[in-house]
Design a protein that fits this description.
- Keywords: Endoplasmic reticulum, Glycosyltransferase, Magnesium, Manganese, Metal-binding, Transferase.
- Pathway: Protein modification; protein glycosylation.
- It comes from Pterocles gutturalis (yellow-throated sandgrouse).
- The chain folds into 2 domains: 58 residues, no CATH class; 147 residues, Alpha-Beta Complex (Spore Coat Polysaccharide Biosynthesis Protein SpsA, Chain A).
- 44% of the residues lie in helices and 14% in strands.
- The chain has 7 helices and 8 strands.
- A 4-stranded mixed beta sheet has the order 3-6-4-7. Strands 1-2 form a two-stranded parallel ribbon.
- The longest helix is centred in the middle third of the chain and has 18 residues.
- The chain starts with 6 loop residues before the first strand and ends with a helix.
- 26% of the residues are buried.
Length: 207
C-alpha cells in the first residue's frame, strides 16, 4: 500500500481461537507489523481502545472489527479522504452513497436505521452513520475523545461522533459495505436496545 502500518490485535479472552490465529500471523508477518495485545477477560470496547492506543506508534489509528465485517479494502479510501480534507476523523458510513449492509435480517436493519434516524433528529450530529465502528482517527483526537466519553456498549460509538462535533473536530465520511459475520452470533438484544435509548436521551440532555 505504500503506507507504514502496524496491526494491533486486542483479544479479550475470546473462546473462538482469535489469539492463536493472531500468534500465527505474528510469526508470518513479524512482531513489528502484528502486535498482539491480549487481555484476560472481556473489559469492554472503550477500554480496548485505550489499551490499543497505548501501543500505537503512528499518528493515525484505524479502528475496525476483526471478523472482517469491516473489509480492509476501504482503508486506502479512508486515508485518501483524510488527506483530501485534512480531517480529524474519517467515518465509514453504511447509509450514504453506495454504502450498504449485507447479511442482516429485516428486524436488524430496522433497528439500525431507527437508531440512526432517532439520533439524527435528537442530536443533529452532522454524520450519517453513528453506530458503526469502522473509523480513522487522528491519534491525539482519539485520546481527547476517550477522555470525554462516558458511554458503554452501542452508545459509545455515537457519543464519539457527538463529542467530536462538540469539540469542533472535522469529520469526513467514506461509504462502506458492511457484511455480517459468517461465524458467531450478534450480541444485539433487548437489553442493548434499552441501554441505547437511555444513552441517547442522556446525550440529548447533556450536549
Amino acid at each position: 500500500s505504500g503506507n507504514n502500518f502496524e496491526i494491533i490485535i486486542i483479544d479479550d479472552g475470546s473462546p473462538d481461537g482469535t489469539q492463536e490465529i493472531a500468534e500465527q500471523l505474528e510469526k508470518i508477518y513479524g512482531s513489528d507489523k502484528i502486535l498482539l495485545r491480549p487481555r484476560e477477560r472481556k473489559l469492554g470496547l472503550g477500554t480496548a481502545y485505550i489499551h490499543g492506543m497505548k501501543h500505537a506508534t503512528g499518528n493515525f489509528i484505524v479502528i475496525m472489527d476483526a471478523d472482517l465485517s469491516h473489509h480492509p479494502k476501504f482503508i486506502p479510501e479512508f486515508i485518501r479522504k483524510q488527506k483530501e480534507g485534512n480531517f480529524d476523523i474519517v467515518s465509514g458510513t453504511r447509509y450514504k452513497g453506495n454504502g450498504g449492509v449485507y447479511g442482516w435480517d429485516l428486524k436488524r436493519k430496522l433497528i439500525s436505521r431507527g437508531a440512526n434516524f432517532l439520533t439524527q433528529v435528537l442530536l443533529r450530529p452532522g454524520a450519517s452513520d453513528l453506530t458503526g465502528s469502522f473509523r480513522l482517527y487522528r491519534k491525539e483526537v482519539l485520546q481527547k475523545l476517550m477522555e470525554k466519553c462516558v458511554s458503554k456498549g452501542y452508545v459509545f460509538q455515537m457519543e464519539m461522533i457527538v463529542r467530536a462535533r462538540q469539540l469542533g473536530y472535522t469529520i469526513g465520511e467514506v461509504p462502506i459495505s458492511f457484511v455480517d459475520r459468517v461465524y458467531g452470533e450478534s450480541k444485539l438484544g433487548g437489553n442493548e436496545i434499552v441501554s441505547f435509548l437511555k444513552g441517547l436521551l442522556t446525550l440529548f440532555a447533556t450536549t
